[in-house]
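Q: Structure tokens for this one, please.
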Amino acid sequence: MIELALVTGASSGIGKELCRLLARQGINLIISGRNIVELQALSDELSLLVPVIIAPADIANIQDRLGLVELIHKRMPDLVINNAGFGLYGDALSHRIRDTMEILEVDGNATIQLTLEAARTLIDAKKRGIILNVASVAGYFEIFPSLAMYAAAKAMVAQFSQSLDDEIERHGVRVLTACPGMVNTGFRDRAAGKHLEEKVFGTMDAIFAAEQIWKQIQSGKAVNIFDWKYKVAVFCARYLVPRRWVAKILKRGINKRLADKG
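A: Here is the predicted structure, written as tokens:
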């Protein structure tokens, strides 16, 4: 039975809905994110159900990450959900190098560091536990122009998570990989640099994504691509559709969002 969960990226989107879902299950929470105002509001809401610890952190910042690592060592959460992440739409060279590398820092390096620290902490304490890393279906496409660094970082996380899961499962610690498709959160607005009004076909809401992740935690399924439309899309892109067509389709979708007048 899960007693304490740490959730990064908890101040909005999937992270916030995961915290609400976990609180309804009676699981104590450590909630982390950049927006202290939103974290406090979420804490006020969920403290009526379970004890909540607020851990403000910008995980792009190494010092902030070390604060989370210290908290992991001290509290030893038996569920760690690495959910924080962001991307930028458009050609890689259209962004500042600093911004592009921050994607790798948040989506890749921070996730891997927190995963390793949580796994080592649980194993040393001889505790069973689950680490769930929110990757993306984008990481399963061999080519993703206009979302290159995000897709690459998520592919790295997915492969790392599956390999580590195989290495440490014998200790009673699992590393699960969740791969949602497009989710109707603030991710799209941040990636585009503006508010997007149009809801793209296949977009799921954050509550659905959180429910899928919870089901995965309960089942122990190593990798979960959701929903079925994205499973079909990945299969077609890998085995049926020529690579250059895949690139053209994906890039056209991103460019359409960038052209949105919202």
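A few notes: The chain has a mean pLDDT of 94. The chain has one domain: 4-259.
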